[in-house]
Sequence to fold (577 residues):
Amino acid sequence: MSAPVRPRTAEPAPAAGRSAPPGPSAEEVRVKLVDWLAEAVLTPDADPDAPLRDLGVDSLDLIRTARRVESAFGVRVQLRELFTPGLTTAGLAGIVAERAALRGATEAVPPGTAHDPVVLTPSQEQAWEEQTGERSQWNQALLFTTRPDVDPERFAEAVRRLVAGHASLRLAVEERPARRPRQQASALDTDGPAATALGPVLDTVDVRALSDADLTAAVTLRCAAEQLSLDPHAGRVARFVRFDAGPSRPGRLLIVVHQLAIDMVSWSVLLADLEEVYTALEEGRSDVWPTEGTSYPEWARALAAHARTPEAQEQAQWWTDVARTPAALPPDRPVADARAVNTAASAATHREEFPAELTARLHAVARAHRAHPGDLVLHALGEVLAERLGEPAVRVDVLRHGREETIGDTQLARTTGWFTTTVPVRLDLAPGAPAERLARTVGHLAALPGGGVGHGALARHGRPRIAAALRAAPPGNVSFDFEGDDADALPLGTLLPDIAPEPVGDITAPHWTRPHPVEVIATTDDGALRVEWWYSTALYGETTVRALATRHREALTALLHALTGSDAAWAVPFGSS
Fold:
């Protein structure tokens, strides 16, 4: 399923891989940090000198901040450092300024270098096993408008450098009989002609002679065909198709990447790097290449190694206890094999949109309780499921960004790949005051060992006894993903100024196996909370899902009412008729 995207103008910054002027003062860095954080988290009455956690900064905000720090000042800050309790913008500015002053030449892996074979990450491997049919049409895709005067040779060179700089765009999956599959990043020629090095990665379609209507039809047709063009076995995990519409009107650029090689955070990295490298080439600078810290194959290796460490094994009891929590939402239509019928072809959606007043209250209550807005939406979902199942606690699979730099000596702010991980979460809904019940949820989420990535690592790469116990747990039927305010914001610039109006085609095949029968996806865009229920009609009826969505709306509204004491007309107590 393709998530909607909202363009965001990219802030001018030094090109990827280019050294920033040396020696910024701590105050210069602090001013930049405040500006960046204000875009997403600071309210007019917020104190920019308060600890980052008190400003409502979440992990995705910090990933973006780390990426901007590297681009603007040429130094890297690990995400684990950004989560230090009590860290303020002034404290972070001091760290950045100190490292910028000491910055020297660092040894880096040359762009386009091949990587040795390594096991799939837990998210990749689980999804690979779930897809029992053809796995090629399982993509993410975006279609952009391009400025009219794109130079074809410069663009090809920019794409070549982009692919060379990001190992995930060069992955190939090797299946081995009776053994787990492996992935390998192939080498890319960085010296020869770009067209030769890229091979099947980039194609240019001449649509200059077409009318606007015919151009739209041609783009739509080609986009649909490109969704069938990838093959992870052969190493074709990325395709760039540029539609050349001539010097007087915008063209198009389609980017299709196999799900194994990308997540939503990666899009911002790729687009910023493409813009920066093309601009540098246009200005006559040929020394600019995208750089990433820890490559995706290196991350896969570090995660597998982490699963065998004493630190990871100490988490086993935590995850075992969570796995015992009820998680099965009984289907309306019981079948022998729920996975077999839970396909893309069977999917339907129901969406609830909340008023702006309630959305604003959601953010205010979250700040007051030192929580993330998504924590409250998830807690309300737990209330509904606990009532439905008649249980005091329920388990929900929660999607998290997975870029946890607590694993090894990793730098992931500029790395592309599939980091998104599904983490089982136990929601304790035993009787108590609303604030007490919410505190249990917030506390559990805050206490997730290592941000949650250890669960997948232990289940896939841990000691046999631990892995077997975790993988034997009954699968959860419901997942939750809070995409927030800026999950769909992209750093669009002058090369790719906007999202194109044409459809990208079906990113998954009809037989694609969905990971959960019911997926709840929440976004807060343009000041409105929207909750989408994506479900399998082969397992659940529309009436059931609509009732669950209605109860969730009531639960969240009642929670906000209880925590603020508001008597607003929209506050409907949970459980009322």
